[in-house]
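Suppose a colleague, Dr. K., hands you the sequence of a protein chain of 410 amino acids and asks what its three-dimensional shape might be. Before reaching for any lab equipment, you can write down a predicted structure in token form. Begin with the sequence itself:
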Amino acid sequence: MSLTAALKGFVVVLCWFAAAQSDEGWNVRYNTKTEICVNKGSTVIIWSSYDYPAEINNVSTTVDKRFWFIETEGEPVDLREDPEYKDRVRNRRYEKKCRLEISEVRESDSGVYKFRLITNHENRSFTGEPGVRLTVEELQVQVISRSDQQEDSDLQLKCFYKCDPGGLYRYAWFINGEETRSSQTLTYRHRTSSTDRISCALRYYGMHPSPEVYAPQTASVSLTPPGEILEGSSVTLTCSIDANPAANFTWFKENKDSLKSEEPTFTISNFTAEDGGLYICVAQNQLGQQNSTVQVWVGSGSVGLVAAWSIRAVLLTLMFLAVLFLKVFRRRSSEEPSVIRSQDEDAQEPEGLERDGLTSGRPAEDQVEIQHATVTFTQRQEDPLYSTIDPVKAKRRRDSHEDKEDVVIQ
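The predicted structure, expressed as tokens, is then:
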């Protein structure tokens, strides 16, 4: 029989009678024990029957609402309207009987459940006391003893269930999901390998099995930061493992007997060359152990040397950018002409040029392009100072049509 075939659902129906009754004819009776204990994942059914006075003050009594709720500090809330019980609660009514059915119960469902009536009479509602206390527990596999052999281990196990302190139920054991028929009691002895996964369940009830127990699997170690570690810095070694029960960790360094750490993470501050080497993480639980190693390499240089070179590189970069900026600025300044033309010079032609015949008798396209020098005035405007205008020799160039002269005036 496989584990999947065993999980068909488990229904707990316990018949007992606990009544809450008043002198006025109100009555709620629970057809169940006032305290019940079930396994996680099962289905629980609680019955109740009720009665109420046919009339009050000559007014007939009608029931407006009947519902189940879990006892809390606030006002009673219908379980069908509680998001924690959505799609897991069903109420069924037969005349003056009402059945509560909770499927796939969780450990958080543990509490006291009560039945409540609300009628058409003002302030006339009735809650059945004391209610039914539900306790949800989960099966657990416990390791009683272990003796290691060459390639496997001899284990003695127990299926622990709080709802069965006397061990009266019959149990089923599963190895890697397959049922083994070698034992139907709450204890089990098995020769197992390091990769076996073991669980237990209540036989014939199809209840959810216990969580699987197994030795540490797939250990791995990581470094933060990765790669070579510089002297003076810090590094954190992390060991990850998959195991149930949870594994205990131990860190060692190769060729060193001293214990480094007993935590999953191990940090080395102010790393030195002597800290480099092979580190070993040992993960162990009651079913076995697994080791994982990591090599920590020492990088060239140190944190202080790297910082000094970084500062020097930044300074050199800033100096280079400053020199480059000055060169670009000077080059742009030298390329821009400093020409100021006075309004008087723009209004009339220079007399010296007219006497030299540079502007007379030539068409517009043959006119000489004239550049004027800068004119500077002193504070006393009655003594103007004019810069000397010296014509330079014109350069002649001949093209296919006609001669043109370019006169440059300095």
